[in-house]
Amino acid sequence: MNEQNISENISAIPTEIAHRLESSPQDVRSELWDSLSAEEKGEVLPLLHEEIKESFLKRTTVDEITSITDHMQPSDVADVIDLVPAEVGQEIVDCLSEADKKLVEQSLEFADDVVGRWLKHDAITVSRNRTVAQVIKHIRSISLPVYTDKVLLIDSKRHYKGAVTLASILEASDNLLLSELPLVTDINVLNPNTSLTDLAAVFRIKHFISAPVVDSEGVLLGRITGDDAISVLQDEADRQFMNMAGLDEDSDLFAPVLISAKRRAVWLGLNLLTAFLASFVIGQFEAILEQVVALAVLMPIVASMGGVAGSQTLTIVIRGLALKNLHSGNTQSLLKKELGVASINGVIWALAVGVLASFWFSDPMLGVVIGTAILINLITAAYAGLFIPVLLDKLNIDPALSGSVVLTTVTDVVGFLSFLSMGAWLLT
Amino acid sequence: MNEQNISENISAIPTEIAHRLESSPQDVRSELWDSLSAEEKGEVLPLLHEEIKESFLKRTTVDEITSITDHMQPSDVADVIDLVPAEVGQEIVDCLSEADKKLVEQSLEFADDVVGRWLKHDAITVSRNRTVAQVIKHIRSISLPVYTDKVLLIDSKRHYKGAVTLASILEASDNLLLSELPLVTDINVLNPNTSLTDLAAVFRIKHFISAPVVDSEGVLLGRITGDDAISVLQDEADRQFMNMAGLDEDSDLFAPVLISAKRRAVWLGLNLLTAFLASFVIGQFEAILEQVVALAVLMPIVASMGGVAGSQTLTIVIRGLALKNLHSGNTQSLLKKELGVASINGVIWALAVGVLASFWFSDPMLGVVIGTAILINLITAAYAGLFIPVLLDKLNIDPALSGSVVLTTVTDVVGFLSFLSMGAWLLT
Question: pTM of the entire structure?
Fold first, then answer.
């Protein structure tokens, strides 16, 4: 068995087709998509990133969409309805069976960022009064859904009454009642209004195979499988990674040039504002820059050291917030640690840069100025790297998306300001 | 059910204890660790990040370590042996049962970044000649391991002969032979030498519940469960995110100050080199900077726009490489797209900054200079953002770790050089 075999093994399955679509430039992608059957399209479409999904839906006729949604889970149909114009959505609903219509409408009651939208209805549910033999017979009569590790117990009103593992059913003797089997104790019961971000956080701590979803009245609505939770977790990680560069997590590798250019222009414009702010600060020191040109030569070093040190603290804090490792109870301890790290590195690099600058420009006082500015900027960077993401998180703004812009603004401004103002004071 | 209930449900389980340990400052952490029983320690230790794991092992006596490893899976014992001094490792091995000793030694034959080290030995394996009734009886006699979705078929020499799903066994009639049941076709058979990075890539495309591990002679060695694969995937995502800021993925939120300071000093030092290189470039233009101080005021804008645009391309390419969406067959298409995006944004922002700078310093030629420099730097950034990570990846250097330093060096140097040299040429 080698790599070759592994990839052969996974070819032709929907996830592999989705991967191939996402790896293809626009023209190849359209060709590949057109070559799929309605059934394949129905299996593949829910696996694609939103952006690509939307572009395919735009170029598909209403008739074809309804034949594609025929092959989809209700939650995925709901997702398609969300992405198409209202009249197309109505047409899709009209083509559904009564049972599916109800499930799709139930999905649509929830926003697309909460558990309720994405739950599956394929859980094996049984009454507690059934015997082991009856349940095994029931399981044999249906097709056991993948990601089934437990059977969910309900009463006559579909109230959730706990779960027993498939393992304990298989191991028990035939005539026992399910109520006599041990209930699963470390189960993650989810609320349909739980956000996907919280789902990812729960799943990070406990990798469940499946989790029941129960509403506030105790009624079992469905389940979330590990499979779904992994996708959510991946999306969260992708989002965080892409957001750090101001990119949308759905950003398509081969998005049309105009769409990409427009999106990135916004980010560049935002960064331009902070760059102009930094330039404005520098502009206040034109007089001293004309006199001591060494300040102009060295000033990027001060800003850059602050930016790099700050982004390290920022990254650690953003990850700590995402993993729920960081909370109000331990922020103070982290501040102490980060200030300690910043002080040590501040002193080391202040001395190093100070000595180098002194020799380069044969001016010991210039070394003192740049060393002090670096120390000030590294300590500022530690405060900013810690408090900017914590504050943004409190304001419900994604720290991964806007943290680095705000941080760079602070370290640039403080870097230039401290270096040039001390220069103006001590070098004339 | 609300958030409260969810977190109560997961308290007291090992993953939750591990999470609490990782969220605690050093002193609280030590106290919590000391309060655990040997069994709890055995369950929790394998879940901790390497750095924390090592610090606990350092402060634990040999006797206690052997009582902790008593409660561990063979692969986790192998991991502990890797982290402790050789004589302690020997003592751990001596305390194992003969069967466990063999499994631990088998694990240790593999490096800790390949599948062979981490496989589990709890797969349900049966001969193809058994009947469905016999297998069900066998399953009932043992405790069904979690993450079991299939039964693996072997011959008398433990050669892997395919797999049948638990579902198809449950649905089949009692007297059928396993060889008469349909084999699973879309299975991911892993090689013990497959790297964890490749495992993550395979798992990303296909979220398997369990996958058999088979050596080059076709012998079944064990299995990897979805649970393990999720951890690997998470670690890969964490590593990528942390590496972008030059941090180790194991970086402990509450690592001791001295250890953190030392590690980050290396990264700051590396960045200082690139900052000095940029300063050296600026230093070549002292004469013109003294004459036209506006160049000093505006030069950070050129460098910063290039850096931001480049890091967007860099991020997209790093993600594309990690998801295996990008390969030699489509790099050319991506280059075309990125150059298109860079040209459009280059022209837009060249005009915007050019006009603003012209008015600010009442010098139209200055606007032409900065506009042209920005256009040049954005196009350079697109090339650099694409080819730096692709090249690093080919050289087996992690592009997430070193890509941004190299990129910033390029955009800083090209930014300052183009802006100042054109300034020297056109503004005197």
Answer: 0.88
